[in-house]
Write a structure and sequence with these properties.
single chain; alpha/beta; Aspartate Aminotransferase, domain 1; Aspartate Aminotransferase, domain 2; 5-stranded mixed beta sheet; about 40% helix; globular
């Protein structure tokens, strides 16, 4: 089923007639291309051209210094030498999980969470669970994916008190709409929190620059795993990000991003309320998407196929579910407002509503009805 859904989404992504409410991509028109171009040129003009040379596994010292300074403004005291630059947040998540959980162990996650983290954990033979008894947790406290919610104070305290280790994924922390990013869990516990950060949601995922901070006693092991994995993070990408941070006001840029994505989120919520009034959601506090649900149930692949034919795509909810959708589970979707042209958001919701109405008319699955076996994808 997952492979078939991926095939449908890949086809839709390459179709210019489809309004892409899937994917969770940053807005391409907001990439600071002029500033990154200047950073690229400066990097190539530097003496000895470190941007084109081998580097140490932990990453460029000046880049780690910029990261440490920015975290200090958020209440985290960390030295540059404690930071490991990674090939995006995904590598950081994988290294962190390898450090704190053995094969066959459980790892506590939210009921709906980042699909690629779930994939990574399962590839490592870990067992994602929503049980509160797990001693290793994966959380996105600042802004979660897919819901865009912020962890409350009571939940933060409970997680810190109970868990032996917490992998804190702060991928969307910079994109919290109103209040800005909260203080990371890392600020409260350096001995139990493994912190994952990234520039993918802001400067661009193509750079593949993330970073990892682990408890001091795990740092040498983390660095060894990093070196064994890929020797080092791309030198040119590190140099570009380093030069950008040195010459530009990154905080001002991030504030611009927040305003832009907040406006888009409001526009999508208004469109869903208008065209899909039976669907429910909580307003996201940040991020790229809107997590919506309804008690009515249909075959997910059939709905996606019908939607793409109507000219709109979405992220099927099953991709985010830790324990899979059951017979009595609502239909869920993630609708991404981030990369689609803003003036097409309302039309995308209208097309989705039309596809939903069509698939509901044809589907034998009604709320409370007996669920038949899907025939489209076996």
């Amino acid at each position: 089923m997952a492979d078939a859904l991926d095939e449908l989404l890949r086809g839709a992504a390459g179709n210019p007639r489809v309004i892409g409410l899937a994917g969770g991509l940053p807005c391409p028109t907001l990439f600071p291309r002029r500033e990154l171009t200047a950073a690229f040129l400066r990097a190539l003009q530097t003496r000895d051209v470190p941007a084109l040379q081998y580097a140490w596994p932990e990453g460029f010292p000046a880049l780690r210094g910029h990261i440490a300074a920015r975290l200090a403004r958020r209440g985290v005291r960390v030295e540059a030498d404690e930071i490991i630059v990674t090939s995006g947040a995904q590598q950081a998540i994988t290294i962190a999980a390898q450090l704190v959980a053995r094969r066959g162990a459980t790892i506590g996650v939210d009921a709906e969470t980042y699909p690629s983290a779930l994939d990574a954990f399962r590839s490592l033979r870990l067992l994602p669970t929503t049980s509160s008894q797990a001693r290793v947790l994966y959380r996105m406290p600042a802004v979660s994916n897919p819901a865009g919610s912020t962890m409350g104070e009571e939940e933060r305290r409970a997680a810190l008190a109970h868990a032996r280790f917490i992998i804190e994924d702060d991928a969307y922390g910079d994109l919290r709409f109103r209040a800005g990013p909260p203080v990371p869990l890392l600020a409260t516990s350096r001995t139990h929190v493994l912190y994952v950060g990234t520039f993918s949601k802001t400067l661009g995922p193509g750079l593949r620059v993330g970073f990892l901070i682990v408890p001091p006693r795990l740092h040498a092991r983390a660095l060894r795993r990093k070196a064994d994995d890929d020797l080092q993070t791309n030198s040119l990408s590190q140099a570009i990000v380093q030069e950008y941070l040195a010459q530009n006001d990154f905080d001002a840029f991030v504030r611009k991003l927040r305003r832009h994505y907040h406006r888009r989120a409001d526009r999508l919520m208004a469109a869903v309320r208008r065209y899909l009034p039976a669907w429910s959601f909580k307003a996201p506090e940040g991020g790229f998407g809107l997590w919506i649900s309804t008690d009515a149930r249909v075959d997910e692949a059939t709905f996606l196929r019908r939607s793409i034919a109507a000219g709109v795509s979405f992220d099927p909810g099953s991709r985010f579910l830790t324990e899979g959708g059951g017979r009595d589970q609502p239909t869920t979707l993630r609708l991404c407002f981030s990369a689609v042209p803003e003036d097409t958001i309302e039309e995308g919701a209208r097309r989705l509503a039309r596809a939903w109405a069509a698939v509901r008319r044809r589907s034998p699955r009604r709320t409370g009805a007996r669920r038949s076996r899907p025939t489209a994808l076996r």
